[in-house]
Amino acid sequence: QAVVIQEPSLTVSPGGTVTLTCGSSTGGVTSGHYPYWFQQRPGQAPRTLIYDTDNKHSWTPARFSGSLLGGKAALTLSGAQPEDEADYYCLLLYRGGWVFGGGTKLTVL
Amino acid sequence: QVQLVESGGGVVQPGRSLRLSCAASGFTFSAYGMHWVRQTPGKGLEWVSFTSYDGSINYHADSVKGRFTISRDNSKNTLYLQLNSLRADDTAMYYCAKTTAAGAIDYWGQGTLVTVSS
Known about the structure:
The complex is a heterodimer.
Chain A lengths: L3 E3 L2 E4 L4 E8 L11 E5 L6 E5 L3 E2 L7 E6 L2 E7 L7 E9 L2 E4 L3 E5 L1
Parallel strand pairs in A: 2-11
Antiparallel strand pairs in A: 1-3, 3-8, 4-5, 4-9, 5-6, 7-8, 9-10, 9-11
Chain B lengths: L2 E5 L2 E3 L5 E8 L8 E6 L5 E7 L6 E3 L7 E6 L4 E6 L8 E8 L5 E4 L3 E5 L2
């Protein structure tokens, strides 16, 4: 079973920019993994931010963007807000199914 | 508006069974694939199962294969997850999630908690 690797924690200053990454134990992440990014605030259900690498839903704030960067999927937050403090999970599709990363706890401080 | 409401969770002894439901409204349920995802208390997310719009294609994670079964009743706008041979490590919040027509996950329910304990 593949392992999806994320930074356990990151900190960003209000108004600052931060990039979260999502790697795969099987090699480089590509668009064929259909990378997702989800946000989960404490006590809430997850919310889908990004799908298929860089696509946003109607509710995704414009300050979030997805990309592929150096063989990893990446979520960039530009202009962090206090409400962006949350856990962020990536999800990749493999032949046997979908695998979540362990999540990144993002602190806005 | 899209609503997904999970139910059926509770406390169950190891080895027993449980059936979870996800009642859908606000969209044409029979047109979209659906997922189950779980989250162990205080831990990360784990994908569990997927079913296609008509229930003809189903996938399960290795950790639940042979014990859990996903199904749907499009006449009742309801998704199910049958949990058999439950173990302590199946204790988790179970979420259902809808996909778009292109297969991308969009909306999530609020979850139902399953606790496996003697």
